[in-house]
Amino acid sequence: MPRRYALGRAEEATNPDSMRAALAEFVSTLIFVFAGEGSVLALDKLYRETEPPASGLVMIALAHALALFSAVSASINISGGHVNPAVTFGALVGGRISVLRAFYYWVAQLLGAIVASLLLRLVTNGMRPVGFYVASGVGEVHGLIMEMVMTFGLVYTVYATAVDPKRGSLGIIAPLAIGFIVGANILVGGPFDGASMNPARAFGPALVGWRWRNHWIYWLGPFVGGGLAALIYEYTVIPTDPLPHHTHHQPLAPEDY
């Protein structure tokens, strides 16, 4: 199908659909970050005096997977259910979203993450968000590559289940598949660099907790990995010729996917 690269029309800036989509991204990102970072703080609370057991990583992965499944499901028919600046970037480089709407999404996602982190600090009686950092003994370059690979897998899954015009009924399980890949990646990458895959998920806790160690990794890695996944899927997997009539499917959200 044809790719459309656009800065965005002037009327799009004040279009009610754009406002609703940005609000959906704000709320969904808030839901995701609150549950995700909250699970980390809960584990810290439970095992303040000792090292958390290996099952703690499973708890964190499950919390992120379930929260992202819910967040994407809640917004997929309104905004496309990005809930992640790297996913929005993938949609942008794939020509699925205008620059203006991508900017709206990025602002909404970052604000959602910040508000979620502030709420967590309030309800936990001042516990400082942990955020992300590269584990001791793991180099920054290794952490960067880890983030690139994991986010590549995430955005590739988004494209396969939510974007591909041949997805058919597979689109129904898109939120579940997206949640699962994030949970699985946390089980793999969590002990090494925390497994963010999401600049907003990293930025909110970093700002509120004022923890900036290795923070650049959690922007560059997801953007590079997500952008590569979008380009590869967009230009090697999705057909450029019009599909037969019976294989056409409506996009999940207008002008997004």
What's this model, at a glance?
This protein has 257 residues and is mostly helical.
What do you see in this structure?
The structure is a single chain. The chain has 257 residues and is mainly α. It has one domain: Glycerol uptake facilitator protein (Up-down Bundle), CATH 1.20.1080.10. The chain is built from eight helices and no strands. It is a multi-pass membrane protein. The chain crosses the membrane at residues 21-42, 54-72, 103-123, 143-163, 170-188, 216-233.
Topology:
Blueprint: H1 16-46, H2 55-75, H3 85-93, H4 99-123, H5 140-163, H6 174-193, H7 199-209, H8 217-236
Helix pairs in contact: 1-2, 1-4, 1-7, 2-6, 3-4, 3-8, 4-7, 5-6, 5-8
Mean of pLDDT: 89
Classification by helices and strands: mainly alpha
CATH topology heading = Glycerol uptake facilitator protein
The CATH architecture assignment turns out to be Up-down Bundle
Q: Write down the domain tally.
A: 1
Gyration radius over CA: 18 Å
What is the CATH top level name? Mainly Alpha
Number of strands: 0
Subcellular location: Vacuole membrane
Family: Belongs to the MIP/aquaporin (TC 1.A.8) family. TIP (TC 1.A.8.10) subfamily.
Pfam families: MIP (PF00230)
Membrane topology: Multi-pass membrane protein
